[in-house]
């Protein structure tokens, strides 16, 4: 093999300078780096340069190129966004970004509890802060995202009960359902129990319970933002049948809403993106799983759990891995599922967020979200032809049925995009999922309502009879 | 005292920061605020009334969550102090975490992803408003297709193990589509492949067969052939393995798997030494994955987010997760659209498009280096590793089991067995003592097939001087093990905290995973923190 890279000196490659390279080769008695590849058969050698774009060797050229591509984006700072559906536009306090961009955290990985004491403490604190919000004693170091957290929570219920059926009693994001289904389908069968008025049909769920049901799976807020008011009844029914109540949730509302653990939930799980993480095009999700401090439940968790530990110095607090023998790190396929690089930095971010918000901040935010959600529901429902998808209590998201406007949801989205507004997500021919947060104020909601009314303007050519629109 | 100053010591007298920072709940001061939330507008309140009072019975939280109350700078200071008690890759010679490719994450890439043109993008915006990010992700997919030799790539998974899961999920769907789902119940892996290959296969419902190496540490082809059968769904292997040994018979492994109708899945966590040298598809693999946080430089973030890349042959492409990004048109007229998962897809494995900030970072890293740079990175990583190997073997008591007299690719799993037999000092104890010199050190995945193991992977990012420095620290600790073993046995000595007791972590009655659980289990601590007299706690304990 020739050595095309022999004179390729790059800032990321300190030992690429020819002199150093020669010195190191001499030190190990090798004529060229080719000797190190002696075990790679000739037939498998590529023998040509990879076909990649020409490099941008100077940092300034690289930056200009990437920034040029990103400049084609028009973000939610340029558009008035009412988009949710799993990724939410919340305010990220500056201190959160400051902390997680520290080199010491950003570039660390798997240090021991000694040289990485800070990482262990920061993640223990994340677990602890989430535990207060959720009123539960055990929270994991984050897994990948809320989809994975829910899939694992249900798999845990299956392992604990030895049963196969799961009753899905809420409206679930289709993508989340897809993930959960493929993850658990060897072990569990998901059965949809249709919702009534946006939330669980408790009687229908109870009728389908039996001694082969591992769990009732509730989502609150649901895929449409509906808050489940019947958790106690669902918990009672599930427990009477020997099943677990698994609650998927977004923690954003628990400054004011009763946490599911206080309403009978056995496993509470979901996503932490709302807690101090940017939208990042859907690329900043982390999953939490919370359980009671019950050995049987804890031992089913696949994730790492950081706990307090005493040290050789009396009274000093250190940290370490709780019940490490559960994990695939310790026991390969005999561990619970697997553990690996997941979303620790996002957990640190969420911890900083909760510390900044405090009890008052989370309470005020919860109230603001409830109030703005209700206000947006009122304003949009007042648009002729628009009505709410259901009458349930909603947090942050809700659906509107636009069938009375004579226009499809997709047509309305296109019309409002022309005004610089992302009005929501099309979740049915005539259903739009609208999301408000603390970043969409009264004036923004008023503008949405006004523009929606204008887009719904019903000139005669738009009044197409129902049967012709099918 | 006079100039000139003495030179710095050959081995650093490192000391980790020790701030004695309390757990954050102890810092709470009632009434302090870290950030404020906008008030409900009067117009909104007039319209909706008191939303809290109108909550249905039982839904209104009785007492606010017991989060700490802290002014903003106190929160900042607390976390910055914790950050100082953490040793990131930017600060140490981070070659001690073999298998994990702790290379330099260029700072420019962190700056590039911090723009609102990325952070404030919602994944369901009009694709016309997201052309920049869609183009970057699409381009990165094509680059990784070329680097792997595969046909199609998905970047949806958030880490290496998540990508391994997607690999086995696709394999499962493939066999089911061919009517062989019931028949093929086994997955074969090797003991020197990452444990997640075994663990994810088990989670997908498979029985796991683990092949051990031959006497010289090479993957045992005869053992593989004996294990393969019509029941085999796939082989899931790493190459080079975690020993740094490249399997010269890899084509025979793949061919043997194919001969019984099984698929071949390639864990490319250890790809850093073979970029531009050899490719997964050229060895016949059907699926593979890369860890972008290893080979392609994205930061490890204290344990994620990473990013996984699943690359597949055309035959497996219908099973890739969705959504997919497609390019319509060519050149300046090209635009990028989002398509849902196809009918045979395993569906969604993670939200939206994966860990987008890391996809942009990985794209920037490849664009900074190009084909020649990737090859230079691989060759430099391998040169560094073989240089390090020679230096480590000069330390009495250290050895590199297997493949004796042969070169390694990008890492080596070493052994302190000789030193252990001589001194009784274990590899774990040496690792803890290494932290006193400001160096991270890791042993091995479990089980310890290599006795008293340690695994070093120098990557391309560290200079010769830094490699020499790491080896000098190792040699110093080995010397201490012989001459002053108590120093090693009682380490750490220069860290934020001292040696911790694991029995607190394995006993369900004592473990404390959260602060609230701690206060519940240790009422005497709760009483002290609440300012109650000591005698109260003593009385309750008596």
Overview of the structural elements:
The complex is a heterodimer of chains A (470) and B (542). With 470 residues, chain A is of the alpha/beta class. Chain A contains 14 helices and 15 strands. In chain A, strand 11 and strand 12 form a beta hairpin. The N terminus and C terminus of chain A are likely disordered. In chain B, helix 3 packs antiparallel against helix 10. In chain B, the strands form three sheets. A seven-stranded mixed β-sheet of chain B has the order 1-7-6-5-4-2-3, sandwiched between helices. The C terminus of chain B is likely disordered. The N and C termini of chain B lie far apart (61 Å). Helices cover 36% and strands 10% of the residues of chain B. Classes of the chains: A alpha/beta (470), B alpha/beta (542). Chains A and B meet through helix 1, helix 2, helix 3, helix 4 and helix 5 of A and helix 1, helix 2, helix 3, helix 4 and helix 5 of B.
Q: How many helices of chain B in DSSP terms? A: 18
- CATH architecture identity of the largest domain in chain A: 3-Layer(aba) Sandwich
**Largest contact between protein chains?**
A-B, 212 and 217 residues
- Count the E strands of chain B: 11
CATH topology (fold) name of the largest domain in chain B: Aspartate Aminotransferase, domain 2
Helix content of chain B: 25-40%
In the CATH hierarchy, what is the superfamily of the largest domain in chain A? Type I PLP-dependent aspartate aminotransferase-like (Major domain)
Write down the domain tally of chain A: 3
Strand content of chain A: 5-15%
CATH topology of the largest domain in chain A: Aspartate Aminotransferase, domain 2
Tertiary shape of chain B: globular
Structure class of chain A: alpha/beta
How would you characterize the largest beta sheet of chain A?
7 strands, mixed
